[in-house]
Amino acid sequence: MKSNLDLVNECDSFPYVTSGIKFYSFKHGDDTLGYMLPSVVQCLERLPAPNAWRIDHDTRNVRLINPKEPVNAPEMRSKAIAATAMRLKETDSFKVLRGWRDELYPVYGPKGELLFNIERSASPLFGVITYGVHMTAYVRTDAGLKIWVPRRAKKKQTYGGMLDNTVAGGIATGEPIFESLVREAEEEASFSDGMVREHAQACGVVTYFYVRDDRAGGETGLLQPECQYVYDLEVGQDVTPKPGDDEVEEFYLWKVEEVQAALRRGEFKPNCAIVLLDFFIRHGILTPQNEKDYIEIVARIHRRLDFPTA
User: Fold this and answer.
1) What is the pLDDT of residues 157-211, one digit of tens each?
2) In Å, what is the CA distance from 292 to each residue of 3, 104, 299?
3) Nearest-CA neighbor of 227 among 15, 12, 39?
4) What is the mean pLDDT of residues 229-245?
5) Out of 127-136, 243-252, 279-288, least confident range
6) What is the pTM of this model?
7) Inter-residue contact 159 to 257 (CB < 8 Å)
8) Cα dihedral 158/201/310/8 (nearest 10)
9) Residues 6 or more apart in contact with residue 154 via CB below 8 angstroms
């Protein structure tokens, strides 16, 4: 059985002390945008000319070759990243790219400016921060608080068959955070646009640095820092979420104790587990009195990441 801290360790799994770890820094100017594995850097080196990458093995830095900063620099960087990702996909260099999504994620600079867009499935190769929205829908009953929990479709490329948050999904380039939530809520749970806009409550973020395992699909060990915007949605007992697409098999309405038992059994997708821990903390379910690792858990699910954020 897993403790709450075990769940945090599983999701926030990149070491806090990095001396001796052999990764490369993906640089833009003086800023580090992500950490890359040597196996990825080696593939970049072998790309045919014209190669868009400058690699310094002494400093272990990787940069896009961009001698000038034209007005359309984000577009040019995006095209260079896209060409690289497509070449790696065509040569089947990495299994993670077999899950190509045709969905772009944004990468930001230190002032929140867009630096470039990157294919979603390629983002862990470059170790850049990705963003998502996660919402917990819950019901107040005479028997106490209950939570709507979906089970992911077994055929999903990532974490198939595992439990999830009520609504969750990535934020694509150019999509406002709340609009992403509204879209995902309709697609995944058939929640109406009006209900979500009126009743969803923004509750902060969770941040962590995940080292991908085999459940994530593709290569293990890829580095994936993430920021998830967290929302709560209190619904009435007459509201029942229904799968709106093929990503969810079914929904369960579970007591808190049932959710906690499934967490201990390791049934939840790792980042969804810590979103639930955050929910429990905010609702006074997880407290310093009943959790000996309370301070570490609170700190670790709000990790200060080493890279620029939006």
Assistant:
1) 889 999 999 999 999 999 999 999 999 999 999 999 999 999 999 999 999 999 9
2) 10, 41, 14
3) 12
4) 95
5) 243-252
6) 0.95
7) no
8) -50
9) 160, 161, 249
* Predicted pLDDT of residue 20: 77
Per-residue model confidence (pLDDT) at position 19: 73
The answer to whether 8 and 294 have CB atoms below 8 angstroms apart is no
Q: How many residues does the chain have?
A: 310
Among 165, 162, 132, which Cα is nearest to 147's? 165
pLDDT at position 115 is: 95
Q: Are strands 61-64 and 24-28 parallel, antiparallel or unpaired?
A: parallel
